[in-house]
Amino acid sequence: MKNYFEELEKKIKKKIKIEGIIIVDNSDKHKGHKFFSREKFHLHLKIRSIHLKSIPKLNAHKLIMSVLKEDLKTKIHALEITIE
């Protein structure tokens, strides 16, 4: 799991100028939900980025989602994004 989060961080940093990122795994909070799966994560990305703060929030979220497009299909069930 740690390797996957490091991979996500590298993927985001490669495409978007960020100063820092914290990836929080909230998957355990969702055990028992109807569509819960151990193979898919519930993540909260806390991203510090002057660039993302300078563009409209919707555009920043779309940019992040486009970078993680394949992961959202295969490994991420839910994604919360905070831009600082």
Fold and architecture overview:
With 84 residues, the protein is of the alpha+beta class. The protein has a single domain (2-83), classed as BolA-like (GMP Synthetase, Chain A, domain 3, 2-Layer Sandwich), CATH 3.30.300. It contains 4 helices and 3 strands; from the N terminus they run H-E-E-H-H-H-E. The protein has helices at residues 2-15, 50-53, 57-67, 69-74; strands at 20-25, 41-48, 76-83. A 3-stranded mixed sheet has the order 1-2-3. The longest helix has 14 residues, at 2-15. It is globular, with a radius of gyration of 13 Å. The two termini are 25 Å apart. The mean pLDDT is 90.
Comma- or semicolon-separated keywords:
GMP Synthetase, Chain A, domain 3; globular; 42% helix; 84 residues; alpha+beta
Present the secondary structure layout.
Blueprint: H1 2-15, E1 20-25, E2 41-48, H2 50-53, H3 57-67, H4 69-74, E3 76-83
Parallel strand pairs: 2-3
Antiparallel strand pairs: 1-2
